Structure formats: structure tokens, C-alpha cells
Amino acid sequence: MSSSAHPVSRRAVLGAAALAPVAAFLAACSSPGSGSSGTASAKLTSQLNIYTWPDYFSKDDLAAYAKKYGVTPKISTYTDNNTLYTKLNSAAGAGYDIVVPSSSWIKQISDKGLLEELDHDRLNLKNLDQSLLNRNYDPGNKYSIPKDWGLLGVVYDPDATGGEIKTWQDFFDAGAKPNVSGRIRMTSAAEETVGPALWIQGKDWNTKKISDIEGTADFLTGFAKHVKTFSAFDANAMASGAIVMAQANQAYARNAILLNPKLKWVVPGPTSELWVDSFSIAKGAPDIDRAYQFLEYQLTPTVQLNETVYLGYPASLKGLKSKMPSNVKQADLIFGGPNVDLGKLTSFVVNPDTYPTFQDIQNKVQAAAGA
Amino acid sequence: MPVFCWGAAKGGRVRRNTGDHVLAAIPLAWLAVLFLVPLGFTLVYSFGTSGFGSVTLGFSLDNYAQALGPLYLETFLRTLAFAVGSSAACLVFAYPIAYAIARRSGRFKIVAFALILVPYLASLLIRVMSWQILLAQGGPLERMLRSIGLLHSPLTILDSIPAVVIGTIAVYLPIAVIALAVVLDRIPPEVIEAGHDLGASPSATFFTVILPLSRPGIATAALLTAVPMLGELVIPVLLGGNKGLFLAQAISAQYVQSQNYALGSAMVVLLVIAIAVIVALLVRLTRGFDATGGEPGRPERAKRVEG
Fold it and tell me: What ipTM does this complex have?
């Protein structure tokens, strides 16, 4: 063998080369506290890192903030609360100042110690819609301030469904009709699929009884064959009639109705979801002072109004509905329509003991829909 | 060891110095850190117990029991059928294109190769979303089919398994074409001439000479398409309406939605084992095919076949 002529064999070099980075990697991982640093900087830095949903801040407002304070916020995005949770839970999640979790995940993320407790002396919450504060998902608003909110409802074509939809039972009944079956969009969020099936039985989706949750599986997998898609809401599909009935939030519904005015929107009874996307400060944020400065800016009435017009989702300021400019079409749809009572709505709180069961049912329903 | 023997047999002494070893070590180190180490973590996690977003290490086979349970086994078989079927369909479309490029394009061979690779300049997501637009109800395809009278009702193919298959074939076609074209290109024209001289018609020449000689290309193309198709996530979501659970969706749901890293890891390990088995089978099936692919200047290969 030619290798015996050399003092260092090829095998030895390759072996060492493979092991060295492995050893270094494992050493780095085993050192404790490889995540975010615990101390906040005393001085304002020139950076503000925001981790949020895509396109969730009006560009004009961000530019105005940058002009006023000289810092352009750096924005990274996620499309899923689970992604936010996973990222903050890992070493890669360090370095964010402001994050925007949905109400359903605030308890999970804060329980893991990933959010800073908010100092209410530094924030002015008096101008906010008080019915959005102190709700079940974050009592006392210890970790979050409402940014904007949305409802789970149904947007549908009344000609196809042959009548109005008023309750979730109506929704499921309409789904079986020949004009509607095969042209339904349901959401891919497990709690929004299982929730309605629990509500028609008068049960609470924050229940701790797994048997209640599992009890919806047969009903939902039976309904699955009527569903066309669980993908992102497509207003054009509703305009063209490819989809005639869809679970959606009020902003999506408004987009569809603006394209096709004969569509109708409803928040079905007996109850439905209120979700509140919220501002939170990540634990160990590099610039907490800048974060509070940004939050204060976001809570000013002009910004709140601009954000509502830009996003199509209502911000949290009191009395926003009456302040909407007249050129905004279907403005009351932004607020979910004329008869929305936030007191009748329920917010989901992700519970690690029950959430995997929700997701299992979602997987089964999606599998059954494709069969 | 075979590798060292190959070096020695290659017509004389081969000097391998430390420089060569270091050069070879770089991709190996990269592979070790970015592929083997994470795979190792996955293997370790698969035996653990899952918390919500965390894993307690230990030795438990519960995750494997769950991963081999009815829902996921069905999912795996469904994905396998999809991958094999789509790969076969892809090859059927790719073969004529590869043949045309390799043997019929004359002076334009390089241009043709380049054109086949042009789709890869755009990201996968954009290519799949373009299909989403093309196949939509009321979209370009429907209008075209209606105008030539082939369709009289709305096109509902989007958000169904056929749309997923169409999208998958379209996306993987360039890979299959390249793999086949490279092999077809290397069939020496003398062999085909010999076939004609011996009285074979063009179609007989194709089936008895060209097709068997292209088997290594077929095997490579099958491998390069079927294996990634087993892990396909984007296309079923965008073109299939996120329905009909495929393995990648199931695994992703475990990691991202259910935060069950242990079960997700077990599913990954089983998938890797399945792929290894398939690859081993394919390698075994196509062993010795190389010997039939004539290449000038490699006389010792021919000697091995006869010996």
C-alpha cells in the first residue's frame, strides 16, 4: 500500500479533521448560558431589533419613527407562533428587542422565561380599549400589550350556501350541501379546526379534558371530505367562486368582500375566537429603553389609526371605529362588523398537555381530506 | 481496502501527499459538522421523552412505536407511492428531452443544457407558486383550455393530488434530464453504428442498445428525484391545499406545531433508514451496469468483466 510510505496516513488526517470540529461543536454546546445575556444596556444603542409577522408595521410609521429618533428598526419575520417560540427557545433567538406573539402563545413563551415583565409605569395604557386588557391569556398584562386583534369568522357566498350562516352548526351543515362541498377553506391552525367542533357541543376549547378534545375527531374527519384547502386564505379564489365558504379572520374576509361584494361575513355563535397579537419585550433584549420608546410611539393615537388603516386589523386604541377616515371602504368590517361583542368571545391559550392532541386531530383531518 | 487498491491499479504509482489529504478533509469536516452531527442529535433525541419544546434524554422506544403506528405508517406508504410514481412519470417525460439534447442537438448541445438549467435561477418557492397561479380556477390554463374547446367547466385541479404530481414533475424535470443526458451523451456512436450494421431497425436499436446502455442514467435520475420527493413539503402545501398528509408535513407538524421533538426525530430516523435501504437496493440492482457502458481509455474495466 502506498500509504505506508507516509508517516501520517490519509486515514489519520481525515479522522482528525472530522473529529476536531465535532469536539469544538460539542464543547460550545455544553457551556451553560449560551443564550442571551441577562443585562440590558444602560445606554440607548443605535439598533432596534423587531421579530414580527411579515408586513405588520406601516412603512410610513416606521419611517416617521426613524426620523424622530434616528433609529431604523431592523425587522425579521416569522409566519407562525410556533416558529417564534422555537426560535426564542433556542440560542438563535437572542438579540431581539420586541417580539409580537399572538395571545394564544403568550403564556407558553413567558412560562419558559423568554419574555420580560412589563413595567407599567413606563407605558400609558389608559387610551386603550379596556375590554382588550386583563384577559385570560395574560392576566394583568404582565408580559404583553395588545397590538391589534382579530376574530375567527366565516366568509361565504349566501347564494351557494342557500341562506345565512348564524352559528357554527350552520357552517358544518352548509358544508355538506352539494354547492358548497369541495369548495370550502378551513384553517391549518389546529385550535381553529377543533374549536368550532367543541363549541357546537357547548364545550370550552381551553378545556383540560383530553377526552373532550379527542371526541371531536370522528366528526371532523367525516367533515374533511368537503374541504378543498387548508392553505393560506386566497381572496381571489373566493372572488372567482373556487371557494364559497371559508374560515377566515375579518381582515381576510374584508379583502374578499372588496373583490366580490355579494359575499357575507359572520362571527358564528355561540362563541368564537378573539386573538390579540401583542407587543412583548424579549428576555435579555439588548436595548430595553429603545424597546419602551418604540412601544410608547406605537401607542400614540395617530400611529394607532395609521396602523389600523394600513393593516386592515384594528389596533387597540379606544374608540378607533369612529375615527376611521371616510375613504376607507367597508371600515366596519375591520372591526368585525357592526355587532361584535368582545365579551362573548374566547381566547385560546396553548396548553402543552392538550395542544399535541389538537395537532393530532388536525393531522388526521388534513389526511382525511386528501384521501 | 478497495479505494487503495484502485489507486494502486491505476497504471502505476500514485503519490498522495499531505496536501491531498487536507483538501479531502475540508469537505469531510463540513459534512461531519453540518450533516452528521445534527443527524446524531436527531438519533439521540429519538430515544428521549418529549417535553413541550424540549427533550429529556433517556432510552425509550415509545417514539418508534408511535411512529410505526397506523396513521404514520399509512402516511409513509402514501408518500412512498407518491415519490415512486412521480419519479417514474418524471423519467418518462425526461427521457425524450434528454435524448434530444444528447444525441440530436448537434451544435446547440451546450445551449440546450444551459436552457434546461435556467429554471434553477429562480427559487423553488417561486416556481411552485407560478404553478399555483397557472392552475388556479379562472387562471391562464383554464382560459387556454376553454378557448381550444377542451374544457367546458371551471378548472378545479388546484388543491388536489394531481396538481401536486404535476408540480412535482415540473420541478424535478431538469434534474432528471441532466442525469439522463449525461449518460446518453457518452454512448459511443460506434456501438449504435454496429447495431445498424447488424441489421437492427432504429426502434430495435433503441430498445436493445441505447436503453440498456442508459440504465446507469436511469438509476441516477430515479435516485435524484425519488429521494428528495420523499421529503417534499412545499409542493403538497401550495398545490395540494395542504391536504393528504405526506411524511414531510407530518414530521414538520411534530417539530413545529406539536413541539414534540422526540417523535419527530424518531420519524426522521425511520425515514433515513428507509432511504438507505432504497439506495442500497438501487445500487445493488445497477451494479455491473457501469461495465456495459463503454468508455474509451479504460481497458482494465473491460478486463474485469471478462475475468
Answer: 0.76
